[in-house]
Amino acid sequence: MHDTTVDRTVTGWGARVPLWLRGVLPLLLLALVVMVVFRFGPANLARDVFPPVEELTIQRLSFPQPGVIHATVVNGGPEPVTIAQVMVDQAYWVHNMNGARTVERLGRRDITIRYPWVTGEPVTVTLVTSTGLTFSHVTDVAVRTPTPGARYLLTFALIGIYVGVIPVFIGLLWLPFLRGIDRKWVDFFLALTIGLLVFLGVDAMAEALETASLVPSAFQGISLALLGVVGAPLIISAIGKLRHADGARTPLYVATLVALGIGLHNLGEGLAIGTAYASGAVALGAFLVIGFLLHNTTEGLGIIAPLGRERPTVTQLALLGLLAGGPTIIGAWIGGFTYSPALTTLFFALGAGAVIQVVWELWKMFRRRDAAAGLFSPLNTAGLLLGMLIMYATGLLVPA
Amino acid sequence: MSRDGLPRLADLARARMSRRGLLGAAALGGVGLATGGAAVALQTPAAHLGEQSDTSMHHAMASVGDIRPGGFDPTAYLTDFDYGKVSTLPTGRTLREYYIVAEDREIEVAPGVFFAAWTYNGQVPGPTLRATEGDKVRVHFTNKGLHPHTIHFHGIHGATADGAFEQVSPGGTYTYDFDAEPFGLQLYHCHAVPLKKHIHKGLYGAFIIDPRQGRPPAHELVMIMNAFDTNFDDDNEVYAVNSVAFHYQKHPIRIRQNELVRVYLGNITEFDLVNSLHIHGNFFKLFRTGTDLERFEWTDIVTMGQGERAVLEFSYKHTGPFMFHAHQSEFAELGWMGIFQVEPALNA
What we know:
The structure holds two protein chains of two kinds.
Chain A: H1 19-39, H2 42-49, E1 56-65, E2 68-75, E3 81-88, E4 95-97, E5 102-103, E6 108-113, E7 123-129, E8 134-139, H3 150-172, H4 175-180, H5 183-212, H6 221-243, H7 251-278, H8 286-304, H9 314-337, H10 341-367, H11 378-395
Antiparallel strand pairs in A: 1-2, 2-6, 3-5, 3-7, 4-6, 7-8
Helix pairs in contact in A: 3-8, 3-9, 5-6, 5-7, 5-8, 5-10, 5-11, 6-10, 7-8, 7-9, 7-10, 8-9, 8-11
Chain B: H1 8-14, H2 25-53, H3 74-78, E1 81-82, E2 85-88, E3 94-110, E4 113-120, E5 128-132, E6 136-143, E7 152-153, E8 173-179, E9 184-189, H4 195-200, E10 204-210, E11 219-228, E12 238-241, H5 247-250, E13 253-256, E14 261-267, E15 274-279, E16 284-288, E17 297-299, E18 301-305, E19 309-314, E20 320-325, H6 329-333, E21 337-343
Parallel strand pairs in B: 1-5, 3-6, 5-10, 11-14, 13-21
Antiparallel strand pairs in B: 2-3, 3-4, 6-8, 7-9, 9-10, 11-12, 14-19, 15-18, 15-20, 16-17, 16-19, 20-21
């Protein structure tokens, strides 16, 4: 065979079958088998032999007004589950449910309980299923839950601006300083940025995995985290190749990547803060805000580090700042009003993946240098370590 | 904002939505205390009162719905006595024969909550056996369950009638032969091991031995305080008298003003050390184990360990609904709560 074209003719029994049908036929067969199994097959046998595996997750407890508790429940298990009774703090309590008591797989119910909860004290809501299994959710500190409205939109926007936007913009103001210093010190700050980002990436991944454990198992929290952490760098790199087919990386492009990675991380962070604030898990005292201010200012430095020899316009800088800091506001809104562990997991994982991609890009910038100016030169190694140390130290101020 | 700083520190550490995971105690502690401490101490109680005074709407501590009709009826159980198949022995003594079958059955312990129970005669508690002191008692036991079971009677009897060693295998039978003594409220329950499981799965019942001379006529009620660990974590999810949470709250027990009421009360609750009964708006005569007709205690609460019994006598001076419940608030709120509906005396 010297012919380089692939022989696409099929001989034998498949010859007369159109190409599209050859592609679709296995799918049709699969659908048929699924139907048969569903109607008659092993699924029913298995159901008889094994006790039902029930899994309910209370995704969110909210306290819309004094004397009222709202619980959002998702059935993440393989079988429908019947919620027979509801306990609050070890007492059966009368409640309403927006739908049938039997919750289908992946079904969702909102339960309203008239319970005189006490501000500042923990509340445990327990669902008792028809088989007597129990599923609980604890709110550590019950506080009145914000409801969507101008006031709380503003509150969460302010939170986002405080912990996300302002610090990033302050960090950007180091640009004139960076432009004035030696090349080797610019490299030092680039290395420092890598340190910051490694810390952020690990942090985001840890958050993603922690939240993944709260995701109803049907939604596969760990897989979701994997999807995010692998998906983000792949997508970013693909987009980069579309725009720069030759593989050239301008400093502004790298800075944009850094801003995007930090922005995704901050989206997750905003989600977490908004949720924690809304659910009473954390009170955003002045002290906490100060912690975030210090912590996130370093993120601004990271964005401009690649621009040490550039002259970006003010508009470009502002856009970079918004890209990195703005998502905190959006995250706080989402987290404050509708909490979903699945979404939080995904966003944190995307953030982690994006940060990994950025670290890779910065690493490549160093690889082109000789060893004396490389990432692991004594000065740059110090920058790397200092970056992580700064994040650790300022992280101590942010317990939330 | 700073006033919110302090009380949340502990919660921050516990908060699952933790951002940094660890609380920087050294960095945080000093400032938090300085800014938040004093203000919080003043603010918190006021905040609590405020919330509570806002909540005048009706809050209902109860289960929702009702148990399915056709199953075990706790109301019927109150006054349902099994006197056995009665015959007279050549010696002139009364012989009472009872037939008890152990079988596995799913029971409804709260509306919609089903428990895979082990039962005597398909019900939990098992049937209330009743004899008179000195009667010859013969209990024919058949085990139709999947595990070995026995019936262990409280009372004075021979070793072979004790139901402790003769495990009755699935499909097997055994006959317990003994004299009914002493009078009082006795108990019977399975003594197969693991004991804890065989008892909390439902193998128990009341056994009343009446004194020869009888007791004064009364409206008699049998109440067995029990509980169910529905999720098998060695802690009870449902508490009740006679198995169904809140049943007598939804279906109050009707009694007459001034009528003598006699409660045969037993405690079989597993996992908790004690259980108790408290009646509202009244006091009762407490005859511990019911073995003495003269000496009694005059009280409104009786607390019992597992297996303890008592006979209570009281009559209501006032009409209206009166609660009765465990005076362990937790048990009461998890189902051990009922109501006596006292109706005017017939001659009033």
